[in-house]
Every structure is written in C-alpha cells, then in structure tokens.
Design a protein that fits this description.
Blueprint (H helix, E strand, L loop, with lengths): L1 H5 L8 H5 L3 H4 L20 E5 L8 H13 L3 E4 L14 H13 L3 E6 L15 H6 L3 E4 L4 H11 L3 E3 L9 H11 L7 E3 L8 E4 L2 E10 H7 L12 E5 L5 H13 L2 H4 L2 E5 L15 H9 L6 E5 L10 E3 L2 E5 L4 E4 L6
Parallel strand pairs: 1-2, 1-3, 3-4, 4-5, 8-9, 9-10, 10-11
Antiparallel strand pairs: 5-12, 6-14, 7-11, 8-13, 13-14
Length: about 350
C-alpha cells in the first residue's frame, strides 16, 4: 500500500538510524504548564499518522479498515513502521516505538497521531520521550486503554491537550465518529459529553455539579503510574475513569490505592465509564462493581456518577485531557467550558 511506503519519508528519520537522543536528555523533567496548550483542530486534507506505541498489531486487515475510516474524514494517512513490527507482545522494541512517536511529533507536516491499539508498553517509553520537543510541536494525539499512559504524561508534563478516544481496532460507528468530530475537528460550540438516548442510563452516586480540569483514563494504568513523576497535581480536577475485565475486588484495590495516594481527596468530581465485563467470578462471595464505587465515592461527598460512554465499549466519547469542564452527576453529563483545539 502506498501509504505504508510513505511512512517517515516526510519525517526523514528512522528510529533505528541514529534518531534517538541520549536518554538523559530525553528524561529531563519539565514543569507542567499553568494553562492548556491546545493543538490545531484537525481538518480535511490534513496528514495524520497511525502508530502503535504499545501492543503488536497481529491483524493487518484492521489497519486497512482504520485507514479507510480516517480517509472518510478527509485525512491523508501514513503508516508507522510499528504497524508491521513484532517484538514479543510489543509493536517493535522500546527504541523503535519511542523513536517513531518522537519523530511523528517532530514532523511538522503531520497534524495528528492516531494509535492503532492499546495492550501494554507505553510506560516503557516515558523516560525516553522528548517532552520539550512535544511541547514545541502541539498536535492531536488520541487513543485509550494503555495509551492513557501517554495522554496523562504528555498533558501533565507539557500542558498539551490530548484526547481519550477510540483507537484503530475499536469501533468507529456513526455516533463515536460524530463525538470525535465535535471535539477534535471543531472550534465552534462547546460539546456536551453525554450518552446517546438509546444507551443504558447512567447511575448517580453523589448528585451535584463540579467544575475543574478534565483528567483521567484507564484505572489500571493510572494506578500503575502512582508514585511516578508523570502525573498532575490532582487538586480540583474532574477525574474520569474506565476499566474492562476487572473483578470488583480489583477495582476496590485500585481505588484504594488512589485514595491512599491522595487522589480521591483532591479531586472535585468523578466520572466512571461503563465497566465492561467487570463481574465477580463468584458473585455470592463478592460486592458488586457499583457497591465498590459507592463505598469509595459516597463518603467523599463530591459529585460522582457511573455509566458514561468512556472506555472499552462500542459507543465512545472523545474526552480531552487538560481542558476546563463542568460535570453534572444528576444529569450524567460533562459540559466542556472551552474548546479543546484552536
């Protein structure tokens, strides 16, 4: 495919050919920005890249399908080398994956970076990411699941707004695509992030409204980053979470970790996405998922609700990290108070 042969031709660099900077230079800590650094809105005609910074891509037909989806938005699409590389369960070595990501941010002809899949592996790249270069080259980065690592770290370190949204091997149905378009391809209007009418209703844990900066992602990934320098100051944040295939005791353990690290006591509100397949193996001996949420969130007294279309589900909201929003736990929605792009 032509787009495959084009990859990094415009960038002029290959990860394995001397691109990588010294590890100590790349690992330099940068202070978070006090205001959001917003990427330019994506537009038809823009060149975007598909990369896989975590798990290996085993089904190449999914890449072709995703390419066609992105072309339907009017984008020109190039493929990263990681889409065809295999290194155990990774899409290439750490050096290849981080080199590709750094290269895509550095290439001014590329306006957006889309992740093909999650899995595991993004945390192994954090000490090799060139955060200062990324800050100088703001552009759209979108993904979810393990990609949470990159979203949270980049937004915390640079102030760049990133996007928790669908990846290449997840669904891009009409509703999901419209939510993406409203948040990433438009500067007009302030989208309300709420469930489609046909979707199962949300559950209010604590009623009320809260304002704050949106931050969050996959619960397992966030818990694994506790104690690292790649997280924000959680004070006043609206935390959104999602999870899949975790039993209630596991959710309990990770929420306890966030509590003990001071996260839950610092935030102004919490939104939990639909937890896909989060059922106890022996339900007669366990709490339900919603009981665990109530045990942790009700005592906090902050606005909180469960059931937002965030995470490993068919209909997906695109949620920007690093922008101001107001959540309404009684109505089950998140109102953006500023555009996520410029």
């Amino acid at each position: 495919m032509k787009s495959r042969r084009q990859f990094l031709q415009t960038a002029g660099i290959i990860a394995g050919a001397g691109f990588l900077l010294p590890a100590n230079a790349l690992a330099t800590a940068f202070s978070p920005q006090t205001s959001a650094l917003k990427p330019p809105a994506l537009r038809a005609g823009d060149t975007i890249a598909i990369t896989s910074p975590a798990g290996a891509v085993w089904d190449t037909a999914q890449v072709e399908t995703f390419t066609n989806i992105l072309k339907a938005f009017g984008f020109k699409v190039i493929w990263g080398n990681t889409l065809s590389e295999k290194y155990g369960y990774f899409a290439g070595t750490d050096e290849l994956r981080v080199g590709e990501l750094n290269a895509l941010f550095a290439d001014k002809s590329i306006k957006g970076i889309f992740c093909m899949k999650g899995g595991w592996g993004c945390a192994r790249l954090l000490d090799k990411l060139d955060f200062e270069m990324i800050r100088r080259n703001p552009k759209v980065l979108i993904g979810f699941s393990d990609i949470t690592t990159l979203l949270v770290a980049i937004t915390a370190k640079t102030g760049l707004v990133t996007f928790h949204g669908p990846v290449g091997n997840s669904g891009w149905n009409a509703w999901t695509s419209s939510m993406f378009r409203n948040v990433v391809m438009s500067t007009e209007g302030l989208p309300l992030l709420s469930n489609p009418q046909a979707e199962e209703s949300f559950v209010t844990i604590n009623p009320g409204k809260a304002r704050g900066e949106l931050f969050g992602g996959n619960l397992t990934v966030l818990a694994s980053l506790m104690g690292t320098p790649y997280l924000p100051d959680w004070k006043g944040k609206i935390l959104f979470l999602e999870e899949v295939k975790e039993e209630p005791y596991s959710i309990d353990r990770m929420l306890t970790q966030l509590k003990l690290c001071g996260v839950l006591d610092a935030i102004s509100g919490l939104v939990f996405g639909k937890c896909a397949k989060c059922l106890a193996e022996e339900p007669q001996k366990a709490f339900t998922f919603q009981e665990v949420l109530s045990q942790h969130l009700k005592p906090l007294g902050i606005p909180a609700f469960y059931g937002a279309m965030i995470g490993h589900i068919e209909n997906k909201l695109t949620v920007p990290l690093g922008v101001m929003a107001e959540m309404d736990a009684g109505a089950g929605g998140i109102q953006l108070l500023e555009a996520a792009v410029v």
